[in-house]
Amino acid sequence: MSKKIKKMAWAPATLSEFDGVRFLHLDSIWVQGAMRIRKPQHLELEYIQRMMVWMLWRDSASLREGHAVQLGLGAAAITRYCHKVLRMQTTAVEINPTVIHACRIWFHLPEDDKRLTVYNEDAARWVADPERAQTVQVLNVDLYDHDAASPVLDDEAFYANCFNLLADGGLMTVNLFGRDASFARSAARIAAVFGSDQVWSLAPTKEGNTIVVAARGVAVPEREELERRAANIEAQFDLPAAKWLRLVRPLPLSIINQLKAEPQT
What is the three-class DSSP state of 181? Predict the structure, then answer.
């Protein structure tokens, strides 16, 4: 049973279906997630696929190892994938109980078991718990409300708690999207915590989602090794990892210069 927070009024989860795909909404036109009905473990949305780009930064032999955490459940696509396909220890944190209920009814989210725990909690409080420090290898952050205007949590204090949550060698991916979102502002906040040499991004999707990757003390291998990893991911998991590799960019020089210009505390 999901760990719960106190009862509040939440935007109701609703669904739509088109051409064999089921979409999750929060009482609005904005899509919060999607699932191909006949292939529930397939990652349907391109930006969700790109949230798995952390796989390139992990050695192929240990790709499935460790604890994967999702902040923001959406339609449970990443949670299902980490739990059912990668078979990792998997945790999801979702503040809206109607989303958890909808995912269990409509989006094949299983009940909690030895490898899966779903918390009905505030992600900011969850990551700030010092008892969870350095217990996570993979952290996927996709936190939006029903308006999907900008990330709900997007300040240095939050990203500092995300950094503390990660074990050495841990990786975080963040979905940046929305009319009020700013890639430069968010990337600078992430880089201020993780270090400019530990932050990368992918080119935006056609819908405007930009995925940022941040690492805690990861040494990036040579290009040949990354290409081998991409080929392994494509062969084992049918994900477009070679395309990800072409789309990965270092932090823009303008942001690095901005960080250098800021007074050190």
Answer: coil
Measured between alpha carbons, how far is 161 from 201 in angstroms, rounded to an integer?
20
E strand map for 94-181? 116-119, 136-141, 166-176
**Max CA pair span of the chain:** 54
pLDDT in tens, 100-146: 999 999 999 999 999 999 999 999 999 999 999 999 999 999 987 55
Give me the torsion for CA of 245, 248, 249, 251, rounded to 10°.
-130
Q: How many other C-beta atoms lie within 10 A of the C-beta of residue 169?
A: 16
- Each residue of 206-248: pLDDT tens digit? 988 999 999 999 999 999 999 999 999 999 999 999 999 999 9
Beta pairing partners, 199: 214
3-state SS class at 14: strand
- Pairing status of strand 116-119 against strand 89-93: parallel
State pTM to two decimals. Answer: 0.90
